[in-house]
Amino acid sequence: MKKPLVKILLFVLSSAVLTMSLSSCIFDVVNEETKVDYAKMPETDVMPVTEADVLNYFNTVLNYLQDSSNFTEKNKPGIKVSTEFSTDNREVLNLSGEEDDKLKPIDESAKQISNRIVSGLEDSGKYNFSPLVFGDMSISASTLIYPYDSDKINITTADVLSAESDIDGSNLNLTITLNGTPEVIEKVYGVPDKQKVISDFNSQMSSYARLDDYTETYVNFEGGTDEEDHEKILDPVYSVIKMSVALEKNDKGTYFATGRINDLEYTVVSDISAKMTGLGSLSDYGSFIVNFRKTENKKYEFDWIGNASFEPQTEETDAKD
After folding, report:
1. What is the pLDDT of residues 225-234, one digit of tens each?
2. For residues 72-99, average pLDDT
3. DSSP conformational letter for 315
């Protein structure tokens, strides 16, 4: 009577061992499939706090990222780029820089003129890189991320009004506010091909208006009161760089910055003053000036898991009024 019981117990134990073995195999497979082979990025367990430290970490991470020799097909990050720009504060003036009632009918045309100029700036040498796709790290450093005309990013304390950091959950956030001088802005954002912008506008708008010349002045405004309404406080306007880097815990249980960028954003604000000549239906208005403010935001999104398997995503550009 005992032998069948022993056989049953042996069968149960064998089944349990087999189940555990299968579970172990499945677990190993899952672990193997979900293992992430992250690229080695510049790490630090000393969070950058001072202005100099923030800039040094920013320069180090970005310069490392732009060197494609640091990555393989398996660990290179996925990247997506999108550009958004807006135009506002539009006004039409005579060549003396004054309002003129005779030019009022052109007010509606100013929107189309400003948007066409901005499109020309987007297509100029300032942004002359191939459309970026997820996982594409094969293009050269100087065309991946600003600056356009330099292989190395070197923002110094002399270039900024402030460089700050803060920790938000599992992210280290860097915010760099540039000082707004043309030398600094163009060092970071590059210099547009002015003749190309003018040529682009005139080829597209030849039956409407001609762009004779334009100036771009970068905005560096600390805020204050409106001249027309002394009670109204105006917000400060600057060109800013923001970067978010993933944090992780080390073996000691403390956090360190991995160097793996989540998001990188560049925002630049400038005032455009364009000297125009009316053509076609606008020919009766002769020459005039169109002024407007341009705000541009360029965002890079990174994905460090599954990187090269993403479907191609071309650059996205959105215009807002």
Report:
1. 877 777 778 8
2. 85
3. -
